[in-house]
Write a structure and sequence with these properties.
The chain is an alpha+beta fold. The chain folds into 2 domains: 5-12 and 102-160, Alpha-Beta Plaits (2-Layer Sandwich), CATH 3.30.70.860; 15-98, 2-Layer Sandwich (Alpha-Beta Plaits), CATH 3.30.70.990. Helices cover 37% and strands 28% of the residues. It is built from 4 helices and 9 strands, in the order βαββαβββαββαβ. The chain has helices spanning 15-31, 56-72, 104-117, 138-150, and strands at 5-10, 41-45, 48-53, 80-82, 86-88, 91-98, 123-127, 130-135, 158-160. Strands 2, 3, 4, 5 and 6 form a 5-stranded antiparallel sheet that branches. A 4-stranded antiparallel sheet has the order 7-8-1-9, covered by helices on one side. α1 (15-31) crosses α2.
Length: 163
């Protein structure tokens, strides 16, 4: 009896971990001596994270602190989409958003990698902002997972519903 095995490829971020990383960054910004009196802060602005400081170098340092907290909390930096610093009045700002879901062009790229380099008999299909990969052989599915982990993609991938 050869039944189909499958798994889903998704790109999701734990919102609570993002909030925790942001809180830790805010605490560090409040305590560090080099951030005293420069108006350095990082906070949620709707769905985006807004970082502010009085100079371009300082706002980049705020972003660096936030990125270090993301890494410590196990959140991939591929899921943080930070823009360039821009002047707003007397301060500089950086807006960053959290990328979730696999964009259509990235999904097509992943599909092509699976088709070209993956084991034969493995099928993959795009379902909205995720991909379903199926095969008769579980070993082939694990080979696809290893292939995608070693590929240099600009998306943070998780593999779920492996059955």
């Amino acid at each position: 009896m050869a039944s189909e095995s499958s798994f889903d490829i998704v790109s999701k971020v734990d919102k609570q971990e993002v909030a925790n990383a942001l809180n830790q960054a805010q605490k560090e910004l409040a305590q560090r001596y080099d951030f005293k009196g420069v108006g350095a802060e990082a906070d949620f602005s709707g769905e985006k994270i807004l970082m502010k400081a009085n100079s371009e170098e300082r706002v980049k340092a705020v972003l660096d602190v936030l990125q270090s907290k993301f890494v410590k909390r196990g959140i991939s930096l591929k899921s943080l989409d930070a823009g360039e610093p821009f002047a707003s009045g007397k301060e500089y700002r950086i807006e960053a958003s959290i990328k979730e879901g696999i964009a259509q062009d990235s999904a097509k790229k992943i599909n092509k990698i699976i088709r070209d380099e993956g084991p034969k008999g493995v099928k993959s299909q795009i379902q909205g902002d995720e991909l379903r990969v199926s095969s008769k052989s579980r070993d082939d599915l694990q080979a696809v997972m290893a292939l995608l982990k070693s590929s240099d993609l600009d998306v943070d991938l998780q593999f779920i519903n492996y059955r």
